[in-house]
Amino acid sequence: xxxxxxxxxxxxxxxxxxxxxxxxxxxxxxxxxxxxxxxxxxxxxxxxxxxxxxxxxxxxxxxxxxxxxxxxxxxxxxxxxxxxxxxxxxxxxxxxxxxxxxxxxxxxxxxxxxxxxxxxxxxxxxxxxxxxxxxxxxxxxxxxxxxxxxxxxxxxxxxxxxxxxxxxxxxxxxxxxxxxxxxxxxxxxxxxxxxxxxxxxxxxxxxxxxxxxxxxxxxxxxxxxxxxxxxxxxxxxxxxxxxxxxxxxxxxxxxxxxxxxxxxxxxxxxxxxxxxxxxxxxxxxxxxxxxxxxxxxxxxxxxxxxxxxxxxxxxxxxxxx
Length: 321
Ligand code: PMV
Prior knowledge:
Layout: E1 5-14, E2 19-21, E3 26-27, E4 31-48, E5 54-57, E6 60-61, H1 68-80, E7 86-94, H2 104-118, H3 125-133, E8 147-151, E9 160-165, E10 173-179, H4 188-198, H5 202-221, H6 225-244, H7 255-269, E11 275-277, E12 284-288, H8 293-303, E13 307-312, E14 319-320
């Protein structure tokens, strides 16, 4: 029996938004994230004597429509490492009910690590990151714990994540605020493509990210949590400006998303540490300190009745159990 690979999700503080190569998932810019400790995926793969893969997710067998993305990823991996084996994949997402985190980062990082284990590929973490990136861009960063930078690179061999500080001694906690609402989902791939193609601000974004990456790395080195919060919030709002300025315009925000952004601004005016970051969905992740997180959660829950809050701390990289 092979070991189970466990990967944790990550939240981008400086975001990846736009692919310069769609097939290889090469980004236009570097990005920088924090790996979290609460939300993870456990994956185990077994070689089967068959010409088709079978995939179980959370104990359910996926049909040919549901498993498409995973099967196509397994085809890519077979091609990259020149083998023909097929697999029974067992993957379980440990994400508290609707915590609002996409499972693609932890999911593809765990799957890459699991194939590495089962096929005895003996990949180092750089090559594991490359393999994970081929499943989902943000998965390249979930190979490592703590603060992680994904270097954009120019081809398959040069686009991978590197650890900035895997065990940072820094006072940061994340409050995930889930808006209990099913909004129409524009996938990150479609959203990125549309932003790159039609937002007049896309080239400004590329310039902005390159300077914000430098600044946030300095802030991390200095443990300047306020600067980290300010940069992360500004970067997230700039990313969402690309969706609003695309043609046709679109947004991941729901009315509650805007309300939470306003509540965070009010909290800051009262001297409470809180900064917002938002991915390709309506939920808000609030960057807090250990001291502020309780006050932030209480305030949000008082003002909004239909939300769920989940607290996460800094997590680790790939584990084999
Ligand atoms: O890796 P994807 O295709 O799920 O894209 C992730 C996009 C964002 O979450 C919005 C930003 C990021 O860097 O994780």
